[in-house]
Amino acid sequence: MAEATDVLLRLDRVAITDPLDSTELVQSISFTLRRGAVLGIVGESGSGKTLTCRAALGILPDRLQVSAGSIEIFGADAATLTAKEWTALRGSRIGAVFQDPGSYLNPSIRVGPQVAEVLRVKAGLNRRQARRRAVELFGEVRLADPDFVYQQYPHELSGGMLQRVLIAAAIALEPEILIADEATTALDVTVQAEILDLLVELKERIGLALVVVAHDLTVVAQLCDEVLVMRDGEVVEHGSCDQVLRSPQHAYTRLLISEHHQYGLDRFRAGATPRTEVLDRV
Ligand SMILES: Nc1ncnc2c1ncn2[C@@H]1O[C@H](COP(=O)(O)OP(=O)(O)O)[C@@H](O)[C@H]1O
Ligand SMILES: [Mg+2]
Fold first, then answer.
1. What is the CATH number of the domain that holds 44?
2. Where are the alpha helices (DSSP H) in the chain?
3. Which parts of the chain have pLDDT scores under 50?
4. For the chain, how many structural domains are there in total?
5. Which of the listed residues 17, 50, 66 should we mutate to test ligand 1's pocket, taking the one with most ligand atoms within 8 A of CB?
6. Residue 177 lies in a domain
């Protein structure tokens, strides 16, 4: 059925536990990510957003475990995947970008060859093809002068440029899912908006499904179809973005929206999307 094959990732009542003290760090989180959809996860720091993403990527920190529920990824039960199968999926079918892009690059190697290496190892391109494709990808993520950037060391690039390099690496193998975990949090407001625009453009151009994680509702309001609001490891609200923004059911969501009113409005760029207008009317 077309409907069923559309599902790329499904979490069903997933709990994540630290077995040392049996604390449930994430409790009963469920969502379904379909091809081309954009899911937002918001909540304050420590609410379980990153652990949820890491569980979906098969990279939970040592010792933490998925202790209840199930994760289905590309039709497979995640619990049955071997380490080798996870490694094959990551990068090729599911990619991720995190906060602090600088820490994911080797400081002593130029950025271009680092992306080219991904293409050589994972896509089997030869040296020349990998270089050409990496430069092309730098253009696709709207880095000005891709040939020049290719030769730069990480410290020579701004945070926004580094994040574009990381996005280029994440989409190099044409994944179906891209997880952006606070990918724009460390960037200044204008650059943040540019990176979000880029994610939307990639979604539209290459049909990526996105999971966009932020502690800031403003980010989610701009691009998500559906939103999960997390607090203390629990989902307190889950619905379409419009529905959650128009009629938040939970006091915590209302608090996030009022914070948005206090701090968020001036952060929109001119020419707000219809969704931000919805938020402005709440
Ligand atoms: N490696 C770990 N070991 C034990 N507890 C952890 C670990 N990583 C995160 N936690 C705890 O899990 C909770 C959720 O963390 P996280 O998913 O990183 O939150 P968020 O991304 O929403 O800020 C926090 O209470 C955090 O302290
Ligand atoms: Mg986090």
1. 3.40.50.300
2. 2-5, 49-57, 83-89, 111-123, 127-140, 146-150, 159-171, 189-206, 217-223, 241-246, 251-259, 274-281
3. 1-2, 264-282
4. 1
5. 50
6. yes
Cβ burial, residue 175 (10 Å; 0-12/13-18/19+): buried
- Which ligand 1 atom is at minimum distance from the Cα of 53? 17
Q: Is residue 153 part of a domain?
A: no
Residue 43 lies in a domain: yes
The residues near 51 (Cβ < 8 Å, ≥ 6 apart) are 16, 25, 26, 60, 61, 64
53 lines ligand 1 (CB under 6 A): no
- Domain span at residue 208 reads 2-93+173-281
Give the per-residue pLDDT at 217. 83
Distance 45 CA to ligand 2 centre (A): 6
Query: Would you say residue 134 lies in a domain?
Result: no
pLDDT of 3 reads: 53
Ligand at minimal distance from the CA of 51 is 1
Question: Which of 51, 60, 213 for mutating ligand 1's site (highest number of atoms within 8 Å of CB)?
Answer: 51
Predicted TM-score (pTM) of this structure? 0.90
